[in-house]
Amino acid sequence: MPDFYRKSGICFLASIVILGVALAAIIPAIQMRQLAEKQWSDLNSRGVLRIGIDPGFQPFSFYGEQGWDGIDADIGRQIAQGLRLQVQTIPVGYDSLYDALHLWQVDIVLSAVSVDPARTADYAYTDAYFDAGIKMVTLQPTVISSVDQLAGKRVAVVLGTDADRAVRYWERRLPNMTRVAANDPADAVALLNERKVDVAVMNALEAMAAQAHNAGITATPLGNQPYVIALRRDNPILLSRLNQILADMRRDGTLQSIISRWSSR
Questions:
Q1: What average pLDDT does the segment 53-69 reach?
Q2: Measuring CA to CA, which of 8, 111, 220, 239 is 20 to 30 A from 67?
Q3: Reported CATH class of domain 47-130+225-263
Q4: 25 — alpha (psi -120 to 50), left (phi > 0) or beta?
Q5: pTM for this prediction
Q6: Other C-beta atoms within 10 Å of 125: how many?
Q7: DSSP code per residue over 30-72
Q8: Chain-centre distance of CA 129, in angstroms?
């Protein structure tokens, strides 16, 4: 066989292989887009946003006299309004929230959820709407900006909380740090105001309440615990719309207003 024909045949086969590889990459992307568009169309045709909730975590999600209430409830209603949909809440145990998404029982999960890196192949997360990380609360002008500065300090914390677990860990590692048990966040702040402790450690919402009710208090974050909305990864149109609504709520102050209202109770 002449070299010309042999080379032409090789080029033809190479083109076929390249085309096949390209199609193998393009077809799944097209199918994913079609699925996303169908889900978005179905959601709007239904006219209802199904929200999976675990109503056992005040003040984020719980049942009150008016039904579903809390920070997540207020945010969920704002989101549904932005999507021009009605809200349907579906109570689900915290350990079953992802199962409800997987089985198409809910469209989103809004219940003080944190990103789970082990689930990102199947589920997507919105931008954070709240950072629940623990904070160090001090009286001005004292500012403690790092854990190392707690050495030799008296630290108030409510027993049994995430903050308490963190303080116990530091107590074993920092010289002369003294952990002081408080009955509740208000008691921890009272100990601080009475100069019986140098710093109080509590979650972000409790720190916001302390600042709202006590002039001259400074709160310094120690770590991040972002709360997000979870949904199926194959629903990118909804994910984009959720992030846009959350961004709008941040920009016009609605999100901060909701959080501040509940932190001051």
A1: 90
A2: 239
A3: alpha beta
A4: alpha
A5: 0.79
A6: 22
A7: HHHHHHHHHHHHHHHHHTEEEEEE--EETTTEEEETTEEESHH
A8: 6
